[in-house]
Amino acid sequence: MKWEKLLQSGRGDLKKGVIANSNPYRSEFERDYDRVIFSAPFRNLQDKTQVFPLPELDFVHTRLTHSLEVSSVGRSLGKSAGEYLLKKYPDLEQKGVSSYDIGAIVAAAALTHDIGNPPFGHAGEDAISDFFKYHPAGRLWESHLQVGEWADMVAFEGNAQGFRMLLEKTNGLQLSYATLAAFTKYPRPSFVKEKLPKRRSHKKFGFFCDQKQDYRNLATLLGIPEIAENCWLRHPLAFLVEAADDICYSIIDLEDGCTLGLVSLKDVIQLLAGIIGDRFDAEKLDALETSSQKLAILRAMAIGQLIGEAVEAFCEHEEKMLLGEFDQALTDVIPSAEILERITSMSVKKIYRSQPVLEKEAAGFQVLEGLLEVFSLALYHKYFEQDQFSGKDKSILRLLPENFLPKHELPMPYLLLRKLTDFVSGMTDKYALSLYRKVKGIALPGT
Q: Which of 2, 107, 132, 414 has the smallest set of CB atoms within 10 Å of its CB?
């Protein structure tokens, strides 16, 4: 791979490779960031769970605040890595690329990294997948889908849903090619003939089968090689997007867990002091009056240290990334990797399996399964079992978005289900719960 091609600022039709017009006031990559900030899917993240159920108190992170923090860290990572790249490849600067451009690419891609996640956190992904795997109303559709299409339905993936949303014209995003590729941490579809489990970038999948050609066109435009059938290398900046997310959720989830009393302040200090190293000053920390002040300074220092370590790792492995010989998480090869692993273990035990989180996950399974059941059955009756199509089904389908149903032709079953999962996964936590209560007759409109 060549940086000159990987960083091109085109956007538009992936088939034609339309190059965007230059703007004297904003780079194409700054425009990406602004488009995301003003988009409806991004705004919806303010009412989607990060880890903890959305509380009345405002100190617990939502998907929105998490995404903003990941983007901030991503900008720092990208700008620092960009300064290294411009020194190593002076032709980039001659072609108009700046370190701010590279920071903007990573910041915009990081800002969108959770944009495809459904309500109720990662439990929402499992709930959608399990509905098609196990629920009788979900399994009705299997015989109507091809193998790759069914693989998409039984393994809902927020990253792939995000790629779909970024391409959806009605969202008005149309991000630049470089940002779209940096967003795609897992450049493969759900169903592949040859799996590459040793590659971090193929641990999950990054697009559904109906977007496979879109990614192929994107990879061709940017010169990203296909290493197996329908499997590509990562864009190198995707490693920085992933590192920004890893850094933030490791440190911030720990901070939230401490604030909620699930993890002791003593344990947090011990863990983060290990990352901060020689700069940690116990006396200065003790002089601070409140736990929140102590957590804030520890968080800032730890994140600053991890950014520096991740940039060094990126610079060290950059040539191997271009060759496809490096395919690990940057946070797995930095000096603080062992401490991050200890933080993850503690978070799983004391935070992710805490009572509030487990209750939220249980509710998410119930709500999303219930919504998918009523809507998918109504759709199935309308198109495949007309003799079962009832007045109840007609009322349910009227709750779908305008223009959801085709006016004349029989829709392809896969595309019908894709639109249904678009609808459900795009809901906020509160809207999903409210709609569930109404369609199940638990609450009436206006109550």
A: 2
